[in-house]
Amino acid sequence: MSLKNWDNETWLSSNSYIKSFNKFLIKETKLNKYSEILDIGCGRGKILGNLTSKLRLVNKPTGIDIEQHKDRDKRIIFNKIDAINYFKKNRKKFDLILLKQTIHFLPLKDINKLLLLCMNCLNSSGRIAIFTLATSKNEIPTFTKMKKKLSKSLKKDQKILRFINGLYPGSISKTFSFKVKISREKYVEMIKKRYISTLLNLSNTEILKGIGEIRSKYNKRINFKDKLICLLLKL
Ligand SMILES: C[S@@+](CC[C@H](N)C(=O)[O-])C[C@H]1O[C@@H](n2cnc3c(N)ncnc32)[C@H](O)[C@@H]1O
């Protein structure tokens, strides 16, 4: 099962989230209108689309993903391709290569390979920015089964982060935090659509039981912080 609903009508596709994320990104990676940008696992490309307008980018940014969405952003060059295969043909250099909540889909050996390929395509002052869910004090609302799966996947993410830090000891770590305010029923809809990868392999019965738990555990309005770790790598 694939992540078709990740940025589809969730807070992740809201203007306020994208604006706030891009403000953080521009500050941390010093982007400007001449920047060449690649987003690996770009989903619908809304982040890149917003960056194009906000920075008035001279060159359209490139977004790649193994999923192709009909409603993807038209302000970007989209390529439906696997991350590693993309670099077999690419000759372009980038100022920013973004991997937002995508790296955990790859096995460690491919992460090593992919980061080397990314490094080879960076301009001298370019940055690779890797974002993953905060591994400690994570506030994502969960039900029991989801919580178990999430902690397992966060442990795996911790391992990935340690692995990358080992490969690139000079990397800098920052935190991006976004205050989410969502109605419980909207969140239930997101769970039904399996918005996060930890939900992908649950059975329909487990999802229904989980929704029951969410309804009894949370108030009608749910407030929490969606926190991401950002690792910045340079040449
Ligand atoms: C959790 S979503 C994140 C989407 C987007 N970066 C965001 O944060 O809104 C992960 C995305 O990575 C894509 N993906 C997974 N493995 C990939 C690969 N090997 N190459 C390119 N994209 C991949 C998925 O299809 C999905 O769109």
CATH superfamily: Vaccinia Virus protein VP39
Q: Tell me the number of helical segments per DSSP (H or I, 4 or more residues long).
A: 7
CATH topology: Rossmann fold
Q: What structural category characterises the helix and strand content?
A: alpha/beta
The largest sheet has its strands arranged as 3-2-1-4-5-7-6
Kindly report the average pLDDT value. 94
**CATH top-level class:** Alpha Beta
Please state the CA-atom Rg, rounded to the nearest Å. Answer: 18 Å
Helix content: 25-40%
- Envelope shape: globular
> Main sheet?
7 strands, mixed
Proportion of beta-strand residues: 15-25%
List the bound ligands. Answer: S-adenosylmethionine
Distance between the termini: 36 Å
Can you write the helix and strand succession as a string?
Answer: HEHEEHEHEHEHHE
Number of domains: 1
Could you tell me the number of beta strands?
A: 7
Describe it:
By secondary structure, this protein is α/β, with parallel strands linked by helices. It has a single domain (11-181, 223-234), classed as 3-Layer(aba) Sandwich (Rossmann fold), CATH 3.40.50.150. Helix content is 39%, strand content 24%. It is built from seven helices and seven strands, in the order αβαββαβαβαβααβ. It has helices at 15-29, 46-55, 83-89, 108-120, 144-167, 184-192, 204-217, and strands spanning 37-40, 62-65, 77-80, 94-100, 122-133, 172-183, 221-234. Strands 3-2-1-4-5-7-6 form a seven-stranded mixed β-sheet, sandwiched between helices. Strand 4 (94-100), helix 4 (108-120) and strand 5 form a beta-alpha-beta unit. The chain is globular, with a radius of gyration of 18 Å. The model has no long low-confidence stretch (mean pLDDT 94). It binds S-adenosylmethionine.
